Protein 1
Amino acid sequence: MNIIVKQDYIQMSKCAAEHIAELIKKKPNCVIGFATGGTPIGTYRELIRMHKEGLDFSGVTAFNLDEYYGLGIDLTKPYSQDQSYTRFMYEELFKHINIKKENIHIPDGTTKNPEQFCKEYEEAIKEAGGIDLQLLGIGGDGHWAFNEPGSPLDSRTRIEKLSEQTLEDNYEAFYKGAGFTREQMPKYAITMGIGTILDVRSILMIANGYKKARVVAEALEGPITNQITASAIQMYKGEATVILDEEAASMLGRLKRSDSVS
Ligand code: F6R
């Protein structure tokens, strides 16, 4: 596992975008797993800037980690009132770059048959040749995607009930400002499983801020446990890169022994 610590959120985002851009340049028809949330917004802004300078997404295939169950893009509502992850991805990245619509895959939160949909999502990933690079944040409860505490570490794409902490975190970060009550938030999501994520060829995990420091240290250095599903990174066999800002890295023990801060 390669841990890179950058001074602040902006530097973390630039470094993550460079890592993604490097793959696209090396393999123009690569398959990238994207994440939503506050953490990757800076990375996406940087990718958009790089696209304006020529970074070509026309061969890239995208698979997103998750979507709230019950939500899909709703163009009748302004972005502030449409909390779907599909809308987030279009607004924050996809509509600004030249990725082909047919190459974008996001779990369909409006499906009437979630079980069948989840099977097909796994199949679609396989048919695309697997994911070359999966971008991941980490939840306050240690989740990867919406694999909440207790999720099996070999889980596949499925419906998952959101934890109280995730509901609280996402309410504060996204729903509250748009005038939603907590009761109006979706309580379930369709999410790739930890097993699905561990099948990818490389992982890029990003985190910033003091509020993530403890959970980052637990995931990277604590025991591997399904109570902190991001701790599965320690059993990952592929190439894992973790880019943190100094605040998120502040509780890591190993950094006191290494010079990997840049
Ligand atoms: C988003 C996702 C989540 C987030 C995590 C952190 O697609 O899968 O696991 O990465 O909840 O969210 P932020 O970045 O908002 O702190």
Protein 2
Amino acid sequence: MAIDPTSPVPKYSQLRDLLLDWIVETGLSVDDPIPSERELGQRYELSRMTVRQTVDLLVSEGKLYRVPGKGTFVARPKIEMSLALASFTEDMRARGFRPGAQDLVRRVLPASGGTARAMGLEPETPVHHIERLRTADGEPMAVERSSIPLDLAPGLDGHSLAGRSLYEVLEQEYGIILDSGEQTIEAGVCDPADAKLLGLPQGSPVLSMRRRSFANGRCVELATSRYRADRYTLHSRLDPRRPGGS
Ligand code: 16G
């Protein structure tokens, strides 16, 4: 396939699609090098500037990565997160990764006004405040901050969550089985503290998620999480609209 100079699609964008197809067709895999920008320019009869624009785009999309002085290589595919009431542990295992958790902060605190409102609690109700760094195959993936009412899980602060699933502890130790939830997702950037934990430059893009999980109508967890946007993509099944539904 060649670049179509009469197409309304910009040339750098046509080259993006051609390159991605070429990577699949030639069977290139993770960490394999792609041809140099000079070679690509010759092959597709494009200026060096256009090729550079395409490679920059593919790097920013996380499909390629550059190593200064060495070249440009095929990046690892992103991890696809399904929008379900699954735990990080379940989600990672289902995708063939080894899940991990580092306990960063564990405290019992009075719920702030916002937390109390979101969880349907009286202001200042004691909640477990849990901050964890989540890893997949040992690589930092997300920083998760959760609030859980103390009365639902007394003594939870005494259970180490390092390398353990919070949802498993809630189920096994407290008999809490989450049965519904809701989640909002928005684009965000890494603040200095999270950038350090995630091993990313400050200001890197993240997926900022806020989840409320319930059991028998009661809010069990309010969690705000920051996931690396360079490693994650979200996947959601789309069901048909029901007649009369909103
Ligand atoms: C997910 C949840 C998080 C929950 C965790 C429990 C999102 C954005 N967050 O990561 O709220 O605390 O699962 O995972 O989905 P665990 O049972 O493996 O500790």
Protein 3
Amino acid sequence: MSANRKRVRGIEIAYEERGQGTPVVLLHGFPFNRSLWREQVDALSARHHVVVPDLRGHGETTVTESATMEEMADDVAGLMDALDIERAVVGGLSMGGYVTFAFARKYPQRVRALILADTRPQADTEEARQNREMMAQRALEEGMEAIAEIQLPKLFAPNNFERETEKVARVREMMVTTNREGTAAALRGMASRLDASDLLPQIKVPSLIIVGREDRLTTLADAEKMHEAIQDSHLVVIDEAGHVSNIERAIQFNRALVEFLDTLD
Ligand code: MLT
């Protein structure tokens, strides 16, 4: 994917933009980049205007010392301004979902619909915050290979991790090429994120919740709770998939997206 770039809020945001129609902005998880959405850009751009940015500190976007979910949400709003997009379907996977919650809280009028994939509304526990800080230190001191070593096996359904070596290699490549300072900033940003549980009953736009049945990081139970709390929501469970369900089972994931987007037209 070749990058476009816009200068927004003092940083340079790299993004890909393809297709025409309803704008759909998709936000990647941690520590990935916009290429996470390769299959989704291919599938959706026939009928939609798809925009996939690299969030700050990731991919080719500027690395900053601070990377809170709110700052990332402001970057997305700034990018939408720069692209003349007033309102979009906004969605994210995992950390991208945390940023989506921050965006929906701050810019509700700019959200046509939400896509919440393999994510959760609750904030970190104290223990999780301490783990994030340890990971941030490790990233800074040892580099991204060490982070990939710890994280990668948890991202896939066990069978997929064993057998789908190309997909595992692709996710690994995204991880090891992420900047270590950007990684530390995102870890600290996630550790300090707000609990979005109170936001869920206030969400009035159509919302698609997707989760891999074998997701061990943001579980089916998390997704079911979100589904109960968001009034106009639809839950799709992807079989034989873990946390990176959009890569593990792209066809099923894309079908859920296309069917959901069709209901908005
Ligand atoms: C992600 O995939 O974005 C991360 O696993 C989210 C997290 O660590 O909470």
